[in-house]
Amino acid sequence: MSSLLLDDVYALEQECFSHPWAREDMEDSFNNPAYFFFVCKDDENRPVGYISYYQIRDEAFINNVCVTKDARRQGAGRMLVQRAAQSAQDNGASFLSLEVRSKNEPAVKLYESEGFEVEGIRRRYYSDPEDDAFLMTKRFTPEFDVGLGQCGRGITIIPND
Length: 161
Ligand SMILES: CC(C)(COP(=O)(O)OP(=O)(O)OC[C@H]1O[C@@H](n2cnc3c(N)ncnc32)[C@H](O)[C@@H]1OP(=O)(O)O)[C@@H](O)C(=O)NCCC(=O)NCCS
Fold this sequence. Notes:
By secondary structure, the chain is of the alpha+beta class. The protein has helices at residues 3-16, 23-30, 76-90, 105-113; strands at residues 35-41, 47-56, 59-67, 95-101, 117-126, 131-139, 156-159. A seven-stranded mixed β-sheet has the order 5-6-4-3-2-1-7, sandwiched between helices. Residues 16, 64-67, 72-78, 100, 104-107, 109-110, 113 line the site of coenzyme A.
């Protein structure tokens, strides 16, 4: 994994989250072959979002996805989720799963619109502020095809391989 991509992901974490991932933990994941990262950049080559997921045998889990405030509602989040889903399926996953705050409407709507279904609820899983976690899963079928490339504004996806 290039250190430049790690720098991009670290900067995006700082920008998008009040409790960003610690740099050392991120580096550990970057060096772990079970983890996959995709960064998307705008037409001026600025990183505007990233997604990470990890896979153990046929089980894949999204760790995080974020898009900078200025770049939201332009399709980048959807493109990242689609790219991770395609990658997981190509790597032999039978499903892609995640945990999300039940009150995080943008994320829940994004996942629902990409075929994820709520398969469980962890009550009061999150604090500050308190919230339930939805366990959402997208199950792959042999016919699964994400139809990449529906995103506008010249956003491209850079993988970590
Ligand atoms: C969730 C997030 C990644 C979405 O990124 P995005 O680039 O804005 O998403 P997209 O433009 O691809 O939108 C895809 C779909 O998501 C849903 N969506 C996105 N933002 C929404 C909002 N503010 N309100 C309601 N639905 C929303 C819509 O269904 C949208 O489809 P549409 O535009 O055709 O209506 C972004 O809001 C974000 O970074 N949030 C903060 C970090 C976070 O919460 N990450 C999730 C952790 S599990």
